Amino acid sequence: MANPALSNNPAFRQTAVSPAQLDELYGRPSATAAETGRMTYEDTAVKTVVLFAVLLATGAVGWVFPPLAFIGAIGGFVLALVNTFKREPSVPLIVGYAALEGLFIGGISAIFQAAFGGVVVQAVLATLVTVGVTLALFASGKVRASARATKIFLIAMVGYLVFSLVNVALMAFGVLHQPFGLASQTIAGIPIGVLIGVLVVIMAAYSLVLDFDQIQQGVRRGLPAKYGWTGAFGLMVTIVWLYVEFLRIFALLSGRNN
């Protein structure tokens, strides 16, 4: 039974809606993901561009003052760990990471360019091609992340980390005097670092696939737009890793040809 008090209250009286008004309401387009504050590919792409703009800006500073690469490397590593294990994305911390990585990339690029002329351009082109090809393959559905591939990737990452730590230790204690330590040793005339580097590039390419998959899942699940920063951060970490690896590979090849 209707409540007379409510039915007589103007605030609760129903307003008549004409058929034309109903048609107009139903004909309106649905709100987009961006309008509802959800994560989108376009918004994540914009955030990624913003991070790389910051990286390039501070990279120019690092190029002019190469010693800043040390500060960038330490600070970037710390913020990378913080952002990786943080539950909620923090824009200031992510942008701060991009700024510090810019100092590192700019400084180390200047150092490598001075020692091995031309390697910076080669590394940049190789990185862009790898990212472009990986994105195209992922977008076409020809490459996808899988549980088995991810497991192999993690095992390979641990192996590479162990090799890197052993190499650094041998160089630090003066056992090896070559610029790249064990990586400078050769097998059939080919530096070990080049052989390992090829495998690491494949690992980094698969890491890109994982990054693209994470972004895709975030968009499909309708995560809040702020998680676009998490996707952009993941892409930057992988692309920086890929660039540094290419830089090292081309430096080893350049030293071999001299």
What does this 3D model show about the protein?
This protein has helices at residues 4-7, 19-27, 41-64, 68-85, 91-115, 119-140, 147-172, 192-220, 227-257; strands spanning 186-187, 190-191. With 258 residues, it is mainly alpha-helical. It is globular. Mean pLDDT is 86; it is low at 11-15.
Q: What's the structural blueprint in terms of helices and strands?
A:
Blueprint: H1 4-7, H2 19-27, H3 41-64, H4 68-85, H5 91-115, H6 119-140, H7 147-172, E1 186-187, E2 190-191, H8 192-220, H9 227-257
Antiparallel strand pairs: 1-2
Helix pairs in contact: 3-5, 3-9, 4-5, 5-9, 6-8, 6-9, 7-8, 8-9
Short descriptors:
9 helices, 258 residues, two-stranded antiparallel ribbon, mainly alpha, single chain
What's the gist of this structure?
With 258 residues, this protein is mostly helical. The protein has helices at residues 4-7, 19-27, 41-64, 68-85, 91-115, 119-140, 147-172, 192-220, 227-257; strands spanning 186-187, 190-191. The protein has a two-stranded antiparallel sheet.
Helix content: over 70%
Number of helices: 9
For the record, give the distance between the C-alpha atoms at the N and C termini, rounded to a whole number: 95 Å
The parts where pLDDT drops under 50 for at least 5 residues are 11-15
